[in-house]
Design brief:
Elements lengths: L13 H33 L1 H16 L7 H14 L5 H35 L7 H33 L3 H25 L3 H26 L11 H30 L1 H5 L4 H11 L4 H20 L2 H28 L1 H9 L1 H23 L1 H9 L3 H52 L5 H6 L2 H17 L5 H22 L2 H19 L1
């Protein structure tokens, strides 16, 4: 990543963004590595049917982040702006107001989820009626999930406050500990053949401990009397005035992201659910890089927008976009080229047969989705969450149409294609808006050779997709192709200053590991 924009600012400087992105990469990467190890073990020990119940239940918890109403991300932005104007007294008030409302809506959501649990266990999961024990297990899993909703929302807001202060060291330490613990618990539950409800109960306890850890960290990082709740209606009105459109996005976005998996039992049947969920969960790991970078950028861009430094916003965003295209393009090419042997190695012959094409299509979709993280963060940080919400309103009916038409025609591959087309539309809309409003300047794209890089990445991914991926020759080509592409990108798309910066940061990373 080029580092032409210099700043010593501890909230929005380039150096702190690079450092915190690296911390986020470690913080998200370690649980993902543990998760990748846990998935094949869990699949084998639970069996396809019970793993389908577990994975669909886990997706249901993520779906019910809809009850966040956009307040978690709004609180992060308000905290960052309060820090920018040195209004430290406002921070406990912002967080307490957010947490109070989220607890209320999370509890309400939990009651609603518990109320529909009997119907969901039979109608949504599409478990055959003769599998009575599995239906009962699914029902109690949903009951346990209902208790997790409120505490998950609180955990999200407290960690967001620390992110606004750029304390990603604390955030990632807590996340790594409890995420790894969760992965180990599901392995234990599967290995001991316990009821899946045990996992969700233990997960609830882990989330309580995680939230307490984040709260204690907030009391140490931010000044003020944190142990005296400071609920403020005026603060809440300000949060909702900004967050009303974030709320629309937070309501629609989970359905857009998870709707394909929600409809899986209906579209392809319960027996095939695992053949989509497994490659999806592996391909989803591609988002670790954009997620870490976007999480670091959002509070920094919010600070810069509060100061009116829009030229710096464009520079930082363009440099981040260039880094993301290069990294995601090459990683996706490796995943696509080795899709078939990877499915065979991790999950067996049956998954190699059913899941390879699905995995390849999803890898392309996730790589496109990854670069959309940058314009999404820019638009929201610059105070226009209404734009992303309106785009989601446009996308939702299109996504439904694509999902049901392509899903019925091409089954698992059709569902994957529908999801990938939807995220591609989302990326196109986000970039179109940022260029139209000069939030991303075309001059900066030309200066950093971003379009040249994009064309090269598209070409290498297309070549990887066309490889058979089974024969030895194809595997050799799949190995050499990303290496040659990386060298070409390094020499043709990076400026001399950027190349020198790459080596500087690599030496710093090596020095840190050495010490």
């Amino acid at each position: 990543m080029s580092m032409e924009v210099h700043s010593d600012d501890h909230l929005a400087g380039v150096g702190v963004i690079v450092k915190n992105t690296f911390l986020n990469l470690i913080g998200r990467g370690l649980p993902i590595i543990v998760g990748l190890i846990a998935i094949p073990i869990t699949v084998r020990w639970l069996g396809e049917a019970r793993y389908g119940v577990f994975s669909l239940s886990w997706e249901l918890l993520a779906l019910f982040f809809v009850f966040d109403l956009g307040l978690g991300r709004t609180a992060t932005q308000f905290t960052a702006r309060a820090l920018a104007r040195a209004d430290h007294a406002a921070i406990p008030r912002i967080i307490w107001s957010t947490v109070s409302v989220q607890f209320f809506f999370g509890a309400l959501g939990g009651l609603l989820v518990a109320a529909v649990a009997p119907i969901a266990a039979t109608q949504w999961f599409q478990i055959p009626p003769e599998q009575i024990a599995l239906i009962q297990e699914a029902r109690w899993c949903i009951y346990a999930l209902a208790a997790n909703i409120a505490i998950s929302l609180i955990e999200y807001s407290l960690s967001g406050a620390l992110e606004a202060r750029q304390r990603f060291d604390i955030v990632n330490l807590i996340r790594v500990v409890f995420s790894v613990a969760g992965s180990l618990v599901i392995i234990l539950v599967a290995g001991m053949d316990w009821n899946l409800v045990v996992f969700f109960i233990i997960n609830f306890v882990l989330r309580i401990l995680s939230s307490l850890s984040f709260f204690i960290a907030c009391t140490r990082v931010f000044p003020g009397d944190w142990f005296k709740p400071r609920f403020s209606w005026s603060t809440l009105r300000e949060l909702f005035n900004y967050g009303k459109w974030v709320a629309v996005s937070s309501i629609l976005n989970p359905f857009l992201v998870y709707f394909d998996r929600i409809c899986l039992p209906i579209l392809v049947g319960f027996d095939l659910v695992a053949f989509y969920m497994v490659p999806y969960q592996v391909a989803e790991r591609l988002l670790i890089i954009p997620a870490t970078l976007s999480t670091t950028l959002f509070p920094a861009l919010s600070v810069l927008d509060g100061r009116g430094d829009h030229n710096v916003i464009s520079h930082l965003s363009t440099q981040s976009l260039k880094f993301l295209i290069a990294a995601m393009g090459l990683i996706a090419a490796v995943f696509i080229g080795f899709a078939h042997p990877l499915m065979l190695l991790l999950f067996g012959v049956e998954y190699g047969e059913h899941s390879t094409l699905v995995f390849r299509i999803l890898c392309i979709g996730f790589s496109v989705n990854a670069i959309a993280f940058i314009p999404y963060a820019v638009i929201q940080a610059c105070g226009r969450p209404d734009i992303t919400a309106k785009f989601h309103l446009i996308e939702f009916p299109i996504h439904m149409l694509l999902l049901f038409s392509l899903g019925w025609i091409w089954s698992l591959a059709g569902v994957a294609l529908a999801w990938s087309l939807r995220v591609s539309l989302d990326a196109a809309l986000l970039f179109a808006y940022t260029f139209h409003k000069n939030l991303l300047h075309r001059d900066h794209l030309r200066e950093h050779k971003v379009l040249r890089l994009l064309y090269m990445v598209v070409a290498v991914n297309a070549a990887a997709f066309l490889l058979d991926g089974v024969h030895l020759t194809a595997l050799v080509v799949a190995t050499i192709l990303p290496i040659l592409s990386a060298l070409l990108i390094y020499w043709l798309c990076f400026t001399p200053q950027e190349r020198s910066r790459v080596w500087v940061y690599l030496r710093k990373i090596r020095a840190k590991f050495a010490t």
